[in-house]
Amino acid sequence: MRRDTFLKSMAALAAAGALPLQALAAGANIKMMIPANPGGGWDTTGRALGKALLDAGAAASVTYENKGGAAGAIGLAQFANASKGDPNALMVMGAVMLGGIITAKPPVGLDKVTPIARLTSEYNVFVLPANSPFKTMNEVIEQMKKDPASVKWGGGSRGSTEHIAAAMIARAVGVDASKINYVPFRGGGEATAAILGGNVTVGGSGYSEFAEYITTGKMRALAVTSGTRLKGVNIPTLKELGIDVEIGNWRGVYGAQGIDAAQRKALTDMVLKALKNKAWEEALERNNWTPAVLTGAAFDKFVDDSFASLRATMVKAGMV
User: Fold this and answer.
1) Can you give the pTM of this predicted structure?
2) Which of these three, 232, 248, 264, is where a domain ends?
3) Could you give phi then psi for residue 303, rounded to 5 degrees?
4) What's the number of domains the chain is made of?
5) Burial per residue of 190-228, b for 16 or more beta-carbon CB atoms within 10 angstroms, e otherwise
6) pLDDT, tens digit, for every residue of 33-51?
7) What is the per-residue pLDDT across 273-299, written as a single tens digit (0 to 9) for each?
8) Domain region containing 147
9) With contact defined as beta carbons under 8 Å apart, do 105 and 70 qualify?
């Protein structure tokens, strides 16, 4: 049977109810938008999910496009406009994008795309370059108290969780958060290069992105933003150091705008199938990600609540 005739037959059967929509998913060619430059958390997440989709047989192929900038807003706008109505399009996103939307108010927001699933949660770690004159977070804090602008905090886009955490740290130790010197980067690869090159004083990102550099001694870990120490990670929390700050990160995926309820369910089922695959489980362990799966109306509500709580936190930290 010719391929086009076979696909038409399958589609007719699915439309008639003889096959579930998921049966077509095995032949899906997924297009994954990663709204950040290569090398960061969104990039790692998107490519790990893509591998799991393939290994699970949920997709026939996965192609990736990186489009960094403005906390994901540039990639979001391109995804919303170019993928309209496409049931096989996915975009990686997360708390960082919410923060960017709050600070920059871009013309295209998450109301122009379709929620699919929250995937993981992760906490950030702050690090020093190996050759830094500072040894501890307290030394960094003392310098920041003397001259806030002299301490360069490097991390993701403006409004990222590490940016918010830096502002919260400043506020917690009595420094005007609006005076912090924060240097945003389009992706984790750029931020890592800047830290290793000593171009920033302190770097922040998800622990998984810096783990190998911490282990090899190329970066010196200062503190994590979790409430308690991360499992198997011997790095103190900010709270242990007397800095009352705790903030987490999460990542998820959205579908294109204009897909219907059945298409949204099929895409959600496809992602859920991938999350049960061994390749995804290995990615969770390798990157020290915490599974935090949420779909449907519960995910919709979570995003709305996250917008509200994140805005309140940013106002309190002097960022908005």
Assistant:
1) 0.80
2) 248
3) -65, -45
4) 2
5) bbbebbbeeebbbbbbbbbbbbebbeeebbbbbbbbbee
6) 999 999 888 999 999 999 9
7) 999 999 999 999 988 888 999 999 999
8) 123-248
9) no
